[in-house]
């Protein structure tokens, strides 16, 4: 869940970007680039979201101190928005996601693994949706926990699941593993991206089990292809 975070620091970002980090599967193994992006490229996905049909009643802030400028947009098969990326490190304690590394760490997520445990932000790519409010209710738009998303940034595509919820008035957040997959500094205290991240969530989709990244990639590729060819 999002909390206020410090301004991004270029030095810390450069150090992690230089590491060449790749996305992780649910088992902890890294996935090859071809699996990460699949056959549907960033340009094709972004071409489908150039025009916004706003479905939210209002707009969201990207951080608590910013003005509300981000609408949630919709098509027949997906909802989407373009914002920043704050890093969600909540869920099970791991090497990089714990109280020592994340000042705002919480050992739970809104949605859980098939064994009932919280998700692992460090190894599972997931996105965060705003909690239901008068601005927008994600469930009413056909978005559910475990639904699949395509996250686009810097010419890269990462598939993720809907894994956590955040504040009712802020948007633009994803797990440590999602940031790694996109080459974004994943540090929960100093990382993230200030802008230019597009989140495309496919309606009425669900990955089972939610913790299987390979299942998210398989379903994500299928839905992304349908999205770019039909909308």
Lay out the secondary structure.
Elements: H1 10-17, H2 33-37, H3 42-47, E1 73-74, E2 78-88, E3 126-130, E4 148-153, E5 156-166, E6 173-175, H4 176-181, E7 193-202, H5 213-230
Description of the structure:
The chain is an alpha/beta fold and 231 residues long. Strands 1, 2, 3, 4, 5, 6 and 7 form a 7-stranded mixed β-sheet that branches. A hairpin with a 3-residue loop joins strand 1 and strand 2. The protein starts with 9 loop residues before the first helix and ends with a helix. About 14% of the residues have low confidence.
Care to give the gist of this entry?
The protein has 231 residues and is of the alpha/beta class. It has helices at residues 10-17, 33-37, 42-47, 176-181, 213-230; strands at 73-74, 78-88, 126-130, 148-153, 156-166, 173-175, 193-202.
The best one-word shape is globular
Instruction: Quickly give the structural class.
Output: alpha/beta
Gyration radius from CA atoms, angstroms: 16 Å
Report the total helices. 5
> Helical content, roughly?
10-25%
Poorly predicted runs of 5 or more residues: 4-36
Q: Mean pLDDT score, rounded?
A: 87
Number of strands: 7
Strand content range:
15-25%
Q: Roughly how many Å apart are the termini?
A: 30 Å
Query: Biggest sheet, in brief?
Result: 7 strands, mixed
N-to-C order of helices and strands: HHHEEEEEEHEH
């Amino acid at each position: 869940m999002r909390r206020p975070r410090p301004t991004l620091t270029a030095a810390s970002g450069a150090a992690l970007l230089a590491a060449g980090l790749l996305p992780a599967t649910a088992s902890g193994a890294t996935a090859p680039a071809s699996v990460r992006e699949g056959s549907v490229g960033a340009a094709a996905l972004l071409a489908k979201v150039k025009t916004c049909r706003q479905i939210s009643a209002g707009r969201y802030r990207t951080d608590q101190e910013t003005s509300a400028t981000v609408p949630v947009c919709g098509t027949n098969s997906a909802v989407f928005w373009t914002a920043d990326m704050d890093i969600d490190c909540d869920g099970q304690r791991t090497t990089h996601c714990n109280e020592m590394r994340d000042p705002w760490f919480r050992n739970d997520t809104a949605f859980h693994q098939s064994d009932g445990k919280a998700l692992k932000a460090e190894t599972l790519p997931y996105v965060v949706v705003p909690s239901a409010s008068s601005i927008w209710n994600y469930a009413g738009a056909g978005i559910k926990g475990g639904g699949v998303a395509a996250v686009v940034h810097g010419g890269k595509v990462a598939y993720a699941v809907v894994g956590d919820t955040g504040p009712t008035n802020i948007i633009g957040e994803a797990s440590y593993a999602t940031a790694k997959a996109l080459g974004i500094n994943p540090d929960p205290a100093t990382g993230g991206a200030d802008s230019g991240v597009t989140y495309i969530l496919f309606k009425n989709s669900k990955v089972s089990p939610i913790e299987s990244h390979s299942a998210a990639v398989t379903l994500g590729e299928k839905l992304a292809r349908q999205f770019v060819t039909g909308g």
